[in-house]
Design goal:
Order of helices and strands: HHHHHHHHHHHHHHHHEHEHEHHEE
Distance between the termini: 81 Å
Number of domains: 2
Number of helices: 20
Oligomer: single chain
Largest sheet: 5 strands, mixed
Radius of gyration: 25 Å
Length: 492
């Protein structure tokens, strides 16, 4: 028994070490992989917190032109922690944001391990731990400069601590779970789906009496009140200071017509089968769905999965973006661990030759190839951003700090961030259909005070056709490098 305990401990620490080392590879690269728009937005808010006095109630971005640029969405806890680290380390260093994300990943994976172990056994927990650690989706976004693993950390923590409370009946775990649930909702309202697994735990412990327990209503109030106050206030700030409500419009998140198109199902398949679990992990996940439990709290993963399914319905317009599929990962890892434990039980190992060196080596390389197929994107700058940092550096050289810039960067604000200038993100039209309309928009921005037009990819500009001709006819190119980038003065 001691030998088995030692073996599991060695495997556990090996997974931890390998997972952390993997995420430290190229940790100082530009924050342009994965979902660059989300990373840059997070980094902008963080940098402005650091520079402008850590006012978390008025987070600011640089892509609203010359104004204050308030963008109040989720509670900026991730941004605040990283901004404070900027102060400790003496300046803006994006790799610190990556490290904060890695920390939250580790906490999420440990909570997932703890839930699986308390419900099932240590081998299931270890496999679940390995699945969430080496998932391509996890590798890409657990080292990204964005708060999504922070949200998973608080969500999984809320479930874990309530599970411990249900088993040990110690009030402190109940309170900690309520705090984690509150922070989860504050940091992202989309984490509402944890209500189903949390509710399952309460009803499994108390039955219908859960409806009459005052402590449960205290939990509900503690979890919901801070988030409701924050988002109501945030909506008011957007109505007052910015054009449009951004994330506060229902149509941005849910559209019934999405369910009638094949794109939604293709995106979900790609993101959960290929990126989240790989075909091997997804196979074990499916097997895990059919493994019978002993009863009791081991039905918790089903309530958790039901909550995630509801999340997919409510936010159906966003499932094309891989990182919106992250809530699926922890509970899917538990099911995959359950399925793999069933398949690779002791009887299987005794009755087959799979426990030999070469079969295990072949299995390792098969899984490694599948993981690398997607995870490699976590460590390289996409081709479309190849010249962005170089173009942005040149922008800083030729412009003054107060100059406003119109920056093209695949329709997001990455070039503005790396230029360290305020202004507007601008999407260059492809073809001639919208050329005149886009040029008039560019001219209007010049009328609002924009001094420069930064094109971080000449290839993107060349695809504009007529738009490119209009820009070159009306504006002077003041800097650039052939085949890479171009900077135009917007003085006519």
């Amino acid at each position: 028994m001691k030998n088995e305990h030692d073996r599991y401990s060695r495997i556990f620490f090996l997974i931890v070490a390998a997972g952390l080392l993997l995420r430290l590879i190229n940790i100082n690269m530009p924050i342009l992989e994965g979902t660059a728009a989300r990373q840059v937005q997070t980094a902008m808010i963080t940098r402005n917190l650091f520079r402008n006095g850590y006012n978390i109630f008025y987070p600011q971005v640089d892509f609203f032109g010359p104004g204050p640029g308030y963008l109040v969405l989720e509670f900026p806890l991730f941004n605040l922690v990283t901004a404070l680290l900027y102060g400790v380390f003496g300046g803006v260093r994006e790799w610190l944001g990556r490290l904060v994300s890695v920390f939250f990943f580790l906490g999420t994976s440990l909570f997932t391990y703890g839930i699986a172990r308390s419900l099932f056994n240590r081998r299931t927990a270890l496999i679940s731990f390995a699945v969430i650690t080496f998932s391509p989706l996890s590798i890409i976004f657990s080292r990204a400069f964005m708060p999504d693993f922070e949200v998973l950390f608080f969500s999984a923590g809320a479930i874990y601590f309530l599970t411990v409370w249900a088993e040990e009946d110690k009030a402190r775990y109940f309170g900690v779970s309520a705090v984690f649930a509150s922070l989860s909702l504050l940091c992202k309202a989309q984490s509402f789906y944890i209500a189903l697994p949390l509710g399952f735990i309460l009803f499994r412990k108390d039955g219908v009496r859960a409806l009459t327990r005052p402590r449960n209503y205290i939990y509900l109030f503690a979890a919901l009140a801070p988030a409701l106050l924050w988002y109501l206030r945030a909506r008011g700030i957007h109505l007052t200071h910015t054009e449009g409500l951004f994330n506060y419009e229902v149509s941005k998140w849910f559209q019934p017509a999405v369910f009638f198109g094949k794109e939604f199902y293709f995106d979900v398949f790609r993101n959960i089968v290929m990126m989240a679990l790989t075909p091997v992990g997804f196979t074990f996940f499916l097997i895990g769905l059919f493994v019978r439990g002993r009863g009791g709290f081991d039905k918790l993963p089903w309530a958790w999965m039901a909550g995630v399914a509801l999340f997919y319905v409510v936010f159906n317009t966003r499932m094309y973006d891989p990182y919106y599929n992250l809530p699926f990962l922890p509970v899917a890892a538990v099911f995959a661990g359950r399925g793999a434990d069933k398949v690779f039980g002791e009887q299987f190992l005794r009755e087959t030759r799979f426990d030999g060196f070469f079969p295990r080596l072949a299995a390792f390389f098969l899984v490694a190839v599948m993981v690398a197929r997607y995870a490699v994107y976590a460590f390289v700058v996409p081709a479309g951003y190849a010249h962005l940092t170089e173009a942005s550096a040149r922008m800083r050289e030729i412009s003054d700090k107060g100059d406003l810039v119109v920056a093209s960067s695949s329709t997001n604000s990455a070039a503005l961030y790396y230029s360290d200038r305020k202004g507007w993100a601008f999407g260059i039209p492809s073809g001639d259909a919208r050329a005149e309309l886009s040029f008039e928009k560019l001219r209007a921005l010049a009328g609002e005070g924009a001094e420069y037009f930064l094109v971080s990819s000449v290839e993107e500009l060349n695809s504009g056709g007529l738009f490119r001709e209009m820009v070159e006819k009306n504006y002077t190119r003041v800097a650039g490098e052939k085949g890479k980038y171009a900077i135009y003065s917007l003085e006519e």
